[in-house]
Amino acid sequence: MMRSTLGDNIHGDEELLPVRGGYIIITLVLALLLNLVPLPGWLSSATPDFVALLIVYWSVFQAHRVGLWPAWVLGLFMDVADASLFGQHAMAYCVAAYAGIFVHRRIQMFPMSYQIAHVLAILLGQQALQLLIRLVANAEPPDMLYFVSSLTGAALWPALVGILMLPLRQRTGPEEV
After folding, report:
1. pTM, two decimal places
2. Where would you tag: which of 7, 58, 108, 164 has the fewest CB atoms within 10 A of its CB?
């Protein structure tokens, strides 16, 4: 009897290889570069915040290695790149990283459908904090599709987990098969 992929625990019984620091840094830099790709208006509203998504991922799966400092530094880079209020992204990313660290043991044990719900809540909270900071600073309110990027980010969570765990899975040799 097989359950659906969204109902399975992502680790199962397999052991994963340790994560190297360089791998974490490369993924975070790639996420930063993906955020900087210019897109047309309608598509940019639906594009997830890749940095926030990766910060949540690494905060959940490597809570002891990725904490608030990388979130803060990447947030400052995003503030400069977006020419937004300095510290806006940094604070929101730190809150997202803290939320990921706070629930990291729980999320790892949940099936994928529950993980998606938790990630959606974290991403919505991160975006709501950014919106609050913008409104307090008397910036222009965003368009009505502002929170769609959290939905697409949560929808990408299973693919992100699968892709980022590929290099961590132990390879079996032909003699072990």
Report:
1. 0.85
2. 7
